[in-house]
Every structure is written in structure tokens, then in C-alpha cells.
Design goal:
By secondary structure, the protein is mostly helical. It has eight helices and no strands. The protein is globular and about 35 Å long.
């Protein structure tokens, strides 16, 4: 049980760091995660390349973050790409890149995640 809790904490931290890297620290603070964001910022070092990344439009940064966050987030983006009633057209258009252009995940990686999730 403790191992499962530790994995969850580790994943939450990973999600936060990725979202911060893509320029969503302000959004995370707005939803009440200011303390956690502050800790993550102190623990992380961001490169010049990441600094240039936050210059991109918000919808592009979110799509890139979804790609890095993995299959669950990619699926969310795929669903949103079909829901123009929920997101602006330019966002839905950007998320369509998650339909066919998303990174492929090797089967051994998928199997490992399944084995961790369903012991």
C-alpha cells in the first residue's frame, strides 16, 4: 500500500513539473496549488530551451505537455479535439495532432505500466 502511495506522489510531482515547464505555473497557482508550485520551482532547473517553449501559444504548449505526460493525457487531448463545443476551434485543431501524430509508445513500456497498475 505504501509503495502505491509513493508511486502516486511521484506521478503527481512529475505532472506538476511538466506543467510548470510548459508555462502553466500561474494556472496551477490559481487553482490553489501555489505552495506545491513553489516547492516544485525551487527543486527544478529549467533550461533556455524551456524558456523559449513558453513563448509558444498556450494551445501548442498544452498539446506538447499532454504528449510528454503520456497516454492518459494524450487520450484526453484526442477527445477534446472532437469536442469543439467544449474548446475553441484553434485548440481543437491543435489537439487533432494527437490523433495520428502523437509519439508511439513501445509495447514493453505499456506492459510494464499495466503490470505496475494491476499486480
Amino acid at each position: 500500500m505504501l509503495g502505491h502511495t509513493f508511486r502516486n506522489i511521484k506521478r503527481w510531482n512529475q505532472i506538476l513539473v511538466i506543467l510548470i515547464r510548459y508555462g502553466f505555473a500561474g494556472t496551477l497557482k490559481e487553482i490553489g496549488l501555489g505552495d506545491v508550485v513553489g516547492k516544485a520551482l525551487r527543486m527544478s532547473r529549467f533550461t533556455r530551451e524551456e524558456g523559449e517553449l513558453i513563448q509558444k501559444p498556450t494551445n501548442v504548449r498544452l498539446r506538447l505537455a499532454m504528449e510528454e505526460l503520456g497516454p492518459t493525457f494524450i487520450k484526453l487531448g484526442q477527445v477534446l479535439s472532437t469536442r469543439r463545443d467544449m474548446v475553441p476551434d484553434e485548440w481543437a485543431e491543435e489537439f487533432t495532432k494527437l490523433q495520428a501524430d502523437c509519439p508511439k509508445i513501445p509495447y514493453p513500456d505499456i506492459r510494464e505500466q499495466l503490470e505496475l497498475s494491476f499486480p
